[in-house]
Write a structure and sequence with these properties.
A 4-stranded antiparallel sheet has the order 2-3-1-4, with helices on one face. A hairpin with a 2-residue loop joins strand 2 and strand 3. The chain is α+β, with helices and mostly antiparallel strands. It contains 8 helices and 4 strands.
Length: 227
């Protein structure tokens, strides 16, 4: 069958009774959409459990479920006939998405939801299950690895050479790197990047007790720092 004949056949089928939708297609669509909802909720739970950013967004988490279901529905529509697929490509080509993704992990979850939706719509349920297991393992593995140490920005305002000596002695027990050191007369602002375990902040209290130290700020580092 030539491409022209195939196109004609697809066009005719799209305008026939029922628009080419059979009972088998309806059953497959219901099963696929149900599976996409279940797996999308699993991705939602994983995102909520392992979220490591500053502010958790429940709206974005719900978007993951909707993205999985809508991708499955679009894939089912595109696979039904060539007319819908061409129309869908034309419609999506003029849409511009300008929502900024600040956390690369959010992009991973979005692509994860889209991939599961496509895989389920293709009736590859075993592949979808394997993909879920592999992704859950990877997220869990890197999450545990991240808990070993987290990057922080330590900002200290102090005055006096003795305070600087004591600070150097205390920071010597930490894995750190000086990011900036600003002098304003006798006042000094020291910005340090360091690695620390969650809850291991007793050294901050010791720094605050040093004579000459005015204040100490500890900020979790997420890749963006404005001084």
């Amino acid at each position: 069958m030539s491409a022209r004949d195939y196109f004609k056949k697809s066009v005719l089928e799209s305008f026939t009774a029922g628009n080419g939708i059979t009972a088998d297609f309806v059953i497959s669509a219901v099963l696929a959409l149900t599976a996409s909802v279940i797996l999308g909720l699993c991705i939602y739970a994983i995102y909520k459990q392992y979220y490591g950013g500053v502010v958790y967004s429940s709206a974005f988490a719900m978007t993951l479920v909707g993205m999985c279901v809508l991708t499955c529905a679009l894939t089912l529509a595109i696979s039904s006939n060539i007319v819908i697929s061409l129309g869908m490509v034309g419609a999506l080509s003029i849409v511009r998405y300008r929502t900024a993704i600040k956390d690369p992990m959010d992009l991973l979850y979005l692509f994860w939801s889209i991939s599961i939706g496509i895989i389920v719509a293709a009736d590859l349920y075993v592949l979808a299950l394997i993909t879920m297991i592999v992704m859950i393992f990877l997220v869990h593995f890197f999450s545990r690895k991240k808990k070993i140490g987290t990057l922080y920005i330590l900002v200290i305002h102090y005055a006096g050479s003795q305070a600087e000596t004591d600070l150097t002695r205390l920071l010597g027990h930490q894995k750190y790197q000086i990011k900036s050191k600003t002098y304003r007369g006798e006042q000094v602002e020291l910005t340090v990047e360091l690695m620390s375990r969650q809850g291991g902040f007793s050294f901050v209290e010791k720094i605050n007790e040093i004579d000459g130290v005015q204040d100490v700020s500890l900020i979790q580092y997420n890749g963006e720092y404005n001084g």
